[in-house]
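Let us practice reading a record.
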Amino acid sequence: MELHTREWGSGDRLAVLVHGIMSDHRTWRLVGPALAGRGYRVLAVDLRGHGASQRGTGATALERYPLAAYAEDLLESLPAGVELAIGHSLGGIVLADAVERLKPARAVYVDPAWRFVQTGMDPRVMAQLRHLTREQVVALSPTWEPADVDDEIAAAAAWDEDSALALADQRSDLPARPAVPSLVVLADGSMLVDAASAEELSARGFEVRTVPGTGHTVHRDDPAGFLAALDGWL
C-alpha cells in the first residue's frame, strides 16, 4: 500500500515522521516545519487506516491491520536515503519493524508502544476515543494549541478504529538492539515504557531521554522541549 504523505521543506537531508494510532500526519504540525527549518526535507506518512491513506482489506480487523503490514507499507512508500526517522507510539513499533531495511542514519522512538500488551491497554477503550468531544480533548491535553485540538478531532474522524481492535490479537516487545544509532524520547512518567523497561533499553544500547512535564504525545505537549531532547541527533 502506498501511503499518503505530507511534505515540508526541500533540504538535501530526508527526515521521515511516523505517527501513532488514531492520529495522522497532522500530529507533526509543528515538528515538520521545525525540521524543515534545520535543512531537512520532511515526509510525514499516514499509516493504513489513518488520515488520507487507504484502509486495510480483509474479512477481519486482524487481516486488515496486522502489525507487519504497517512496516511493509512504510518501506513501499518512502524513497531511499533516509537520514532521520522518528516514530511515535504505534509509529515506534512500525519504525522498529522497518528500520533494518529502511536503514536511516538515525532513529528516534517517541514514547514507543513496544510493550502495549503488558500495560493492560484495552483496544476497545482506544476505539472509543474516536468519539471524544472537543471539551474532552482540551481536558486531556491542556497545553495544546487550538489548532492541535482541531487536528486531533479531524484525525480521529478519518481513522478506522478497527486498527485498534486488531491489536487485541497481536503483541510486540522491546527491540533486542538498535539497528542504527537510536534515541528513545519518553513522556514524563511514561505509561508505555516504565523505569525498568527504560533501563533495559539503555542496557541494550539505546539512548533514553525524558521530556519533563509531558504526556504520551511528547512532541505535541511540549514541542520546544521535544526538539531540545533531539539535541545531537539532528
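A brief commentary: The CA atoms of residues 28 and 155 lie 12 Å apart.
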